[in-house]
């Protein structure tokens, strides 16, 4: 009897091991090449230089996405308002995307940007600078904490609705492969905008003389054709997870730059000439006119500090685009919404994602409730002191941070 019991136990163990191996193997399978017939909007779109519909190019809207990374502070808030003080052809104010990190962020100002209709997206809690030892090869638990804790703090201290935070950009564009996308999907993130591309731009010439053109946003249901220039490429299927490719710009030396900050020029003309800034942006924008593929301007406010000509050049470019009736300056969330429900330019005014927000919507972060919370060393950041301004409530006892969202635990080195 004992022998029979042992045999049954051994059989169950072997069966469990077999199931585990099968499941693990299934999870680790590479996604197959995209099959357009099985990948249609609103939930799926192949990685492709084609728009998601049969709409003729002449009838497509031409989307320009303007996004900013890092902390929102009193130092950059007025700059953002100045850049965004313009309207699209439908009469609505332009919307921009802000990928927000935690350190030094004024959550009351984040709330005000959101109240004005701009998109608030996630850019991690820590934004640690050690790419090699921190972001590269990060575990799923690590990615999850960076994403979910920042969502929690934006909601808790900035009163940003959770459902409105749909996008992610990883610090230093260090894409984390399957592990990162697994964490993003579990955290409820709908799209990632961290992945630069050189080969899929409207200007890069391949060795055989061809120009591929720019990719449109796509989902990771199937294997992506996009090359990996930074970090690790995902290989598995993540159904419904959108990727908004960061199409490289070509700087004034002919070299690629994934973010405007990285663009260079001869003789520092981007530091001394507003026209040089404007012409750089114009040249890159015009390169994609023939297909009206989305044009992204991804930048940090710090690029404009100390160089007023850069702000002037940016504004000149945005003014220049107003001459194009098909051009809409939109948030990345609006672009993804259009990808799910694409309509011609003449129907855009009726699209739910492109309705004008209220001119003066009520605030859920009244100034009389603001709290400016001071914190001193020891801190989990490289500062002797830091302030965190929030919408409402009692200041947390300790500086809120990764794995300590509510600031209940002291930081010890």
Automatic annotation (TrEMBL):
Q: Where is the signal peptide?
A: 1-24
- BP GO annotations: carbohydrate metabolic process
- Gene Ontology MF terms in the entry: hydrolase activity, acting on carbon-nitrogen (but not peptide) bonds
Q: Which residue spans adopt a coiled-coil conformation according to this UniProt entry?
A: none
Annotated ranges, domain NodB homology: 93-190
Keyword set for this entry?
Signal
Q: At the top level of its lineage, which domain of life is listed?
A: Eukaryota
Entries under PANTHER family matching the protein: CHITIN DEACETYLASE-LIKE 4, PTHR45985
Name of protein: Chitin deacetylase 9-like protein
